[in-house]
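agent> Task received from the user: take the single chain below, predict its 3D structure, and emit structure tokens. No templates, no multimer pairing.
agent> Plan: (1) validate residues, (2) run structure prediction, (3) serialize to tokens, (4) report one or two observations.
agent> Step 1 OK, no nonstandard residues flagged.
tool_call: predict_structure(input=
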Amino acid sequence: MVARLLAEIGETAASSTAAVAARAEQAQPQRTFKEAMAGNKNAAKGENSSDNITAVLAKRVTDPDYLTARIARDRPDILARMKAGIFPSVRAAAKAAGLLHVPYGGQG
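)
tool_result: status=success, residues=108
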């Protein structure tokens, strides 16, 4: 099993869990929409700054840094479990937090 994990993802289960715990230790909560808009000079002027919003959101939804920040902001209980090394991946923690949903009949 260890050899297969090393071959497929380049990590063992223990190193992956340790990486998730380390990421959780350094997590900064994601800013709320209101906080983000307060510092946006274009939003204050009423200008449309949503040129590439779909491309940005498509990448961010699955980005481990983004997911960790959302967990830190919305689910401190899950963040504590991440720090304790309970989750093998950020994706697993995000699923437990309700941030990612598995498609019906699929695994993911």
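agent> Step 4: summary for the user.
The chain has one domain: 2-97.
agent> Done.
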